[in-house]
Every structure is written in C-alpha cells, then in structure tokens.
Write a structure and sequence with these properties.
- The structure holds two protein chains of two kinds.
- Chain A contains no helices and eleven strands.
- Chain A is mainly beta.
- The radius of gyration of chain A is 13 Å and the shape is globular.
- Chain A starts with a strand and ends with a strand.
- By secondary structure, chain B is mainly beta.
- In chain B, about 0% of the residues lie in helices and about 60% in strands.
- Chain B contains no helices and eleven strands.
- Chain B is globular, with a radius of gyration of 14 Å.
- Classes of the chains: A mainly beta, B mainly beta.
- Chains A and B meet through strand 5 and strand 10 of A and strand 4, strand 5, strand 9 and strand 10 of B.
C-alpha cells in the first residue's frame, strides 16, 4: 500500500516563473493538504482540499493555488516565483475522522534562483 | 491567537541517555495534540496523539504527557538511539468537529551522538 507520493522530488526555478507540484494521497484518504517548510522551521499550512474544493486556507497569497481531482490527487501551483518561495513543500493526506493523523509525503524541494 | 511553542529549539545528547522535549500551546478550543518525528529529507510521521482526557501515552521508547490545565505537553525519549536524531514537531488541533485547524510548532531538532 503506497503512502503519499509527491513529484518531483527536487526542482529549480527562476524568479518570476511558475511551478506545479503534484501529490497522490494514501489509498483510502480523501483529504489533501499542502504545507511549506522553510529550513529549520515547522511546516506552514497553505490550504486543504476535500471533494475537489478548497476548504481551508492559511496566510498565503493568491499566487499559491491548488486543485484536487476526482481521484483525490492534488496539485499545488505557485505563480510569479520569489526567492522566498524556496522551501520544502509537503503534501499530507488523511482519512475522515477527528483524530485521524496526517500522512505526509517526503516533499518537493523547490529552489528559486 | 492560536500558538504552539516548543523548547528547546535544538538538543544534543549522547546515545543511551534520556531527554524530554516540551510543547506549550495557546489553542482554543483544544481538540487533540500530536507529536510527529521528521527525519532529515523526509516527511513527518505521527508518533502519538493525546486527547483532552489523556495524561500519558507511550509508544515504545517514546512517552508523551499532556496537562490540559497548564496547556503543556512533553515528549520523553528513553535510552536514546542514533536513529532518534530528527526534528520533533508538536501539532495541536483546534476546533469542534468538521475540519479542525492544525497549529504546528517550529520543532525541536534532536541530535544523538555516539
């Protein structure tokens, strides 16, 4: 049973470009959330998707957008990249239930030059 | 404002020694608190969950405690191993049903030396 898978694992982009990161949730999970983790910091919540709609959003600008497909997989899009967007982007999925844990992928390391 | 603060920021211990990591939170309404372990270059993995009524819970060499009155939690690691070297993140869930909001601490970076 595959866990959460993310692609690509590493990515280098230039300021002003756009990027798309992809995530496949753990089998049986229908809720996907995205996090940005700067070096030495805890993950920062970007947004959460359920039933193909954005349900919650953290304090991130509109340059960060997402999508969830009927098979529950998800994408994170970032437009007009800034140097400060360089970080590890983590995707997590969870099953329904108040105490269900997040299952994280190993992330995509984005470097903006 | 919902906040989770962890201490210390980093810690170095010798293999075989015990250590305790702290998590203080100001989150309302409190739903649960979970400790995650994040190895370098990997995503976090859940170690244990504490609900409002639980004081202590163990998972192997890891023991978590929760004091809901003082809004503090600790993670105690016994007989540390080199593989315990990682970041430990405290995450508090706020809300009552539906999709709760998760508040992440910045983590404690633990290094276990031989």
């Amino acid at each position: 049973d595959a866990g959460v898978t993310q692609s690509p694992t590493h990515l280098i982009k230039t300021r002003g470009q756009q990027v798309t990161l992809r995530c496949s949730p753990k089998s049986g999970h229908d809720t996907v959330s995205w996090y940005q983790q700067a070096l030495g910091q805890g993950p920062q919540f970007i947004f959460q998707y359920y039933e193909e709609e954005e349900r919650q959003r953290g304090n991130f600008p509109d340059r960060f957008s997402g999508h969830q497909y009927p098979n529950y997989s998800s994408e994170l899009n970032v437009n007009a990249l800034l140097l400060g967007d360089s970080a590890l982007y983590l995707c997590a999925s969870r099953a329904r239930g108040l105490n269900s844990p997040l299952h994280f992928g190993n992330g995509t390391r984005l470097t903006v030059t | 404002k919902n906040q989770v603060e962890q201490s210390p920021q980093s810690l170095i211990i010798l293999e075989g020694k015990n250590c305790t990591l702290q998590c203080n939170y100001t989150v309302s309404p409190f739903s649960n608190l979970r400790w995650y372990k994040q190895d370098t270059g990997r995503g976090p993995v859940s170690l244990t969950i504490m609900t409002f009524s639980e004081n202590t819970k163990s998972n192997g060499r890891y023991t978590a405690t929760l004091d809901a009155d003082t809004k503090q939690s600790s993670l105690h690691i016994t007989a540390s191993q080199l593989s315990d070297s990682a970041s430990y993140i405290c995450v508090v869930s706020a809300g009552r049903g539906g999709y709760n909001k998760l508040i992440f601490g910045a983590g404690t970076r633990l290094a276990v030396h031989p």
